[in-house]
Amino acid sequence: LTPKDLGGLRLLVSAGPTREYLDPVRFLSNPSSGRMGYAVAEAARDRGAEVVLVSGPTALPDPWGVEVVRVESALEMRQAILERYAWADAVVMAAAVADYRPAEVLKEKEPKVEAERLLRLVPNPDILKELGERKGQKVLVGFAMETGEGLERARGKLLRKNLDFIVLNWVNREGVGFASPENEVVLVFRDGRVEEVSRRPKRQVADRILDHVKALWAS
Ligand code: C5P
């Protein structure tokens, strides 16, 4: 039996990719499956937390006992998260938010529109950075998906976004990361401490993340 050690915690989790539409049928996105964020939401629920999951498009069913808010674009995700931020004690931002969106969304599918017009992009707001600017007593956790070694980049994101810790994980590593049932991560903390979590099911990675959320929430 799982101990209800997160009873009373109000946790907001984001998961999955975003879709940035060019026109009614085409969009820019990424291969995020949502599994890591859903694992965090389910583990927290089982440990007694009240959980809201803001999810981009995924093939995963809504977890029972969790309020699921489905969104598509980064702007929709931003709104859904900001609306629930005051409620939350902690936020785990596992979504793979698209950094850019098309400058204009065409109303019709126009096959002859020039590629330069179709693919003119503007940056999306950094949702997590906005949360960090209004951090207060909240526990904030981000993810950093890197291609190289990535520790210094992850540290930069941790400080720039004013997070408690960041979960460093990798694209292109055999058997882990995007769409895989397992993950291998490094938790990077503000005081410079790092904790390596060797390859294991995402649910177990989620529990490790939540152990730290719990310790920070209690402090
Ligand atoms: O800067 P980078 O995109 O690598 O940062 C990753 C972290 O920031 C993730 O936790 C992601 O969910 C979050 N993020 C965000 N809004 C964006 C881009 C990333 O909240 N526009």
Automatic annotation (TrEMBL):
Its EC number is 4.1.1.36, 6.3.2.5. Its cofactor is FMN; Mg(2+). Residues 7-215 form the DNA/pantothenate metabolism flavoprotein C-terminal domain. CTP binds at D99, K109, P125, D126, I127, L128, F143, K157, K161. One of its GO terms (molecular function) is phosphopantothenate--cysteine ligase activity. Keywords: Decarboxylase, Flavoprotein, FMN, Ligase, Lyase, Magnesium, Metal-binding, Multifunctional enzyme. It comes from the Bacteria. It catalyses: (R)-4'-phosphopantothenate + L-cysteine + CTP = N-[(R)-4-phosphopantothenoyl]-L-cysteine + CMP + diphosphate + H(+); N-[(R)-4-phosphopantothenoyl]-L-cysteine + H(+) = (R)-4'-phosphopantetheine + CO2. Binds 1 FMN per subunit. Residues 11-219 are annotated as: Phosphopantothenate--cysteine ligase. Pathway: Cofactor biosynthesis; coenzyme A biosynthesis; CoA from (R)-pantothenate: step 2/5; Cofactor biosynthesis; coenzyme A biosynthesis; CoA from (R)-pantothenate: step 3/5. Catalyzes two sequential steps in the biosynthesis of coenzyme A. In the first step cysteine is conjugated to 4'-phosphopantothenate to form 4-phosphopantothenoylcysteine. In the second step the latter compound is decarboxylated to form 4'-phosphopantotheine. Catalyzes two steps in the biosynthesis of coenzyme A. In the first step cysteine is conjugated to 4'-phosphopantothenate to form 4-phosphopantothenoylcysteine, in the latter compound is decarboxylated to form 4'-phosphopantotheine. In the N-terminal section; belongs to the HFCD (homo-oligomeric flavin containing Cys decarboxylase) superfamily. In the C-terminal section; belongs to the PPC synthetase family. This is Coenzyme A biosynthesis bifunctional protein CoaBC. It comes from Thermus composti. The gene is coaBC. The chain holds residues 178 to 396 of 396 of the full protein.
